[in-house]
TrEMBL record:
InterPro entries: Anhydro_N_Ac-Mur_kinase. GO terms for molecular function: ATP binding; phosphotransferase activity, alcohol group as acceptor. PANTHER family: ANHYDRO-N-ACETYLMURAMIC ACID KINASE. Residues 1-20 are annotated as: Disordered. It comes from Ascochyta lentis. It comes from the Eukaryota. This is Anhydro-N-acetylmuramic acid kinase. The lineage of its organism: Eukaryota, Fungi, Dikarya, Ascomycota, Pezizomycotina.
Amino acid sequence: MRRKDSATDLRSISPAQKKSEEPMRVDLDLTVLGICTGTGLTHLSCALVRFSQKSPSALLRVQLEKFDQIPVPFSVRDPIINYLRLGPRAAKTASCIDDLFGHLFSSGVKTFCRRHTLDITCFDLVGTHTEALKLLHRQTNPDGAREHQINWNRIVTAETGISTVFDFSILEPTIVRSHIHPIAYVDRILLQHPHKFRVCLNIDELSTLSFIPAHSHDGARGTISRSCGPGSLLIDYAMRYCTSNDQSEDRDGNLASLGKVNQGIVDSFLSTRDYLRQSPPLSIATEMFGDHEAQQLIDTCLYSNMSDQDTLATITRVTAQNILNQYHRLLKIFFPAGQKVDELFICGPGARNSSIIDYLEAELPESVITKPLHDVGIPGDAHEPVCYAQLALEAVLSHSTRPTYMPLPPSSQHPPVDTVKASVVPGRRWNELLSRVLEYSGGERIHTLKKVHVTGSLEAGFQDINLG
């Protein structure tokens, strides 16, 4: 990646903005497991995060202690695929899917503990999320989607004993936004800089762009985040096709780098699709039966007598070029003309694909510095589970210190401050957790966090990073 400085470069920040690194007595000390899976259901991503804070107004210290990806066994994945294949017809089987997801996530928590020799009672909270189930519930019963989420998270809590936090959403003052992803809120906390305009690109099965204006941009819009189309979705399908299911990803973009891009196919495909208006099909079942946009691309490449390497190169370019197109489009739509981006942080499994990264770096202006999310102390693959751990923490802190006479405003109204909304299934130690939080807060309301300090990373060489 193109590097000129580090995300830890705070030379432009005044001394008054720097926080002391003196040892502090920790008043808040919670351990949260973030666990999530994408639409492909290939694995569960798990991040164990320790959060500590001296006082509600102090820096929140974030330490990523463990990260792992647990494969979803075919014995679990196949039945879910069969249900998802039914789509809107699956209403009568939705409860079965809830059971499957509940057992999948609870088994994932237990497997994570076994792999890392952890006592399951050391977790204060679990923050959960799955994209696949959200899609099915939108198809079958949009009004009952929240009930389904409660059902499968109840299973997680029942089988692990841990309080489960889920169904996250963000309410922000004076800003009306639909389709804002809660992860963008965490991205802003991690990446907002006093003077630099930053963008975070997450390349998972789908790709997501978050635009994060600097603190000093008076009157600027808040963080804007949009899903902008396929990430690894098309590439992974093409890899399975080209290798007869022997490989499921083009790790590091090695195979695509050996091929030649058919630019005509790329331009023709993208000219007929607007991924800002409509995301690619998310049902993993349609992938299994070939009814997918990736298959259309492959058929076009086969008709042109292209090799497997050329096919992968072309489909990878479709992904990269679409990301670039949506980057420019979103920047133009939501920000003033001529808005310059200082830094682009790239994370997610697709951040390892050199064919995508090389293309973006070649096409972006020289002034845009591309960096891995490692620069802020978080491995790129751990981005999403860390975000869900953070969201779980904030939701519980806000909920447990809010007076009983102060209900959350409905989504149609503006809260006075940022608010993380979520649902909770209390576990065995829930009352103990509430007591600890109330004692820490001194009976005062805890609002959402503004200052984060990422400390000790999983990989040697990471320094303490003050992101305030």
